[in-house]
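User: Batch of two.

Assistant: Item 1 of 2:
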Amino acid sequence: MTGFEPSKDHEDFRQVVRDFAEEQVAPHAAQWDREHHFPAHLVPQMGDLGLFGLVVPEEYGGAGADFTSLCVAIEELGRIDQSVGITLSAGVGLGINPILTFGSDEQKQRWLPDLVAGRALAAFGLTEPDAGSDAGATRTKARLDDGEWVVDGAKSFITNSGSDLTSVVTVTARTGTDERGRAEISAIMVPSGTPGFDVAPPYDKLGWHASDTHGLSFTDVHVPEGNLLGARGQGFKQFLATLDDGRIAISALAVGLAQACLEACTSYASSRLAFGRPIGVNQGVSFQVADLAVATEAARMLTYKAAWLKDLHSQGRRSTAEVKQAAAIAKLYSTEAAVSATRTATQVFGGNGFMEEYPVARFYRDAKILEIGEGTSEVQRMVIARGLGLPS
């Protein structure tokens, strides 16, 4: 990259993913959304394309590419279908990344090859019924008993957690108290099918209908002591680091949605006639589309700057604090821009924008979760304020 502008290789790769999305996803996206169908058959296809292994070293079957490449892929999938985009984003950022970053070599060898190939999916169980933004309020517990972790608790809104492809869920759990009497939180890997690990029926969601999302419960679930991911008591730090990367990925997903709205509005405003001329002639419409173009480009620049800093951080050339701040800024702006973009698109389409036969209706429903998942907009503002040195 030159600065944070994607290179020619990135743009060539973008075209590969765009072709896949337009050929394999676009013709079916509306039907999958309407039927609340998770297209599991796409996962191995994306694996064959190398999408799940982009940031994974070659020794585990990956491509060893940079984080910017992953953002390009997520943006292009999100431009066509947000549900498919989040399947990749969560599959890598929340499924693969914790194992890759904190796992032992044995854990990496066991889980990563199938995840990279798209033969399996992994999930990350953080959110609970009473612990969302306040992740430190985790109530799920795990205790050691004769060489096994015994897990009890529940998780909510977990992506990629209940399909036939799901192989393992990494869950955060209280494993004791630290020297200051605060909850010690650790990350433990629970394989699918473990007795006592139950997956609730899929949620009836406002949007992301083709994404696999479930609540999970753990009742006297026994897993080997070696399923601890990283060091005991480091779960809180681990998921904070995981979310920093995930926020950049969600930003890319938001950029894809804003781009889709921009393209839809430009096309519709050029062809839809009112009073004998295209509605795009009217400044009331053209100015809205122009503002949408500005917001989309700004979101893209913030997102790829954050991805660039993430790549430099991986080389030891940028600080964790700098990446955290850039990720929060990108996530906040891009997701709020995407929500505004869908509102603009619905308005430009008028009555047709309220009809499910037009994709902007799906875009509108899909957008809102972007401001919530991977840290709400309020949390991002808190992170940014702290990064500026304001008192907390």
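Item 2 of 2:
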Amino acid sequence: MTQLDEQTRIELEAAAFRRLLDHLSTRTDAQNIDMMNLAGFCRNCLSRWYQEAANAKGIEMTKDEGREAIYGMPYDEWKEKYQSEASAESLAAFEVNKPQD
């Protein structure tokens, strides 16, 4: 692998993250529960990680602000527009696979 300087690595990671957010904004059919069941993380996880990173840098960010940064709109608005009722199968799978925090 090509050796990257720290700044270039950060820029590439940021670009990949922005692309992930853009992709998720167009794939509103990908429900959070399904993402959790398949990948072990979802948009809410990303928003929490984003908020935690901001807080670690001394930037005050609420849970709602973190979610809006990831969802591109207030969370309640996203849920109203795009979230569907989880199937019994998805809920059962989540109970088996959910993180043990």
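The chain has six helices and no strands.
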